[in-house]
Amino acid sequence: MENKKEILLIAQKLTELRLKQKMLKWAFENSKGLPEEKMNAILDEKLRIDHLIKMLETKLKELEK
């Protein structure tokens, strides 16, 4: 039972992160005229989220075995 709860929590977090990832992608693609510093902040956050998604996907695969 505990394993199922953990799987559900990870799946929920993955959904949330994927949504943030899409929002950041949209913001980056549609942010004409933003200062370089802001663009870099968007890219840094996207890379952080990409890394978290990969980690959670790996953990989810381990739990599903």
Question: Which short descriptors sum up this protein?
Answer:
mainly alpha; 88% helix; 50S ribosomal protein L29; 65 residues
Describe the structure.
The protein is an all-alpha fold and 65 residues long. The chain has one domain. It has helices at residues 2-29, 36-64. Helix 1 (2-29) runs antiparallel to helix 2.
Quick structural gist:
This is 50S ribosomal protein L29. The chain has 65 residues and is an all-alpha fold.
What does the largest sheet look like? none
How would the global form be characterised? elongated
**Mean pLDDT value:** 93
**Share of helix among residues?**
over 70%
Strand segment tally = 0
Which runs of at least 5 residues are low in confidence (pLDDT < 50)? none
Q: What are the secondary-structure elements, in order, as H or E?
A: HH
Beta-strand fraction estimate: under 5%
Q: How many domains in all?
A: 1
How large, in whole angstroms, is the Cα Rg? 15 Å
What is the end-to-end distance?
15 Å
What's the topology here?
Blueprint: H1 2-29, H2 36-64
Helix pairs in contact: 1-2
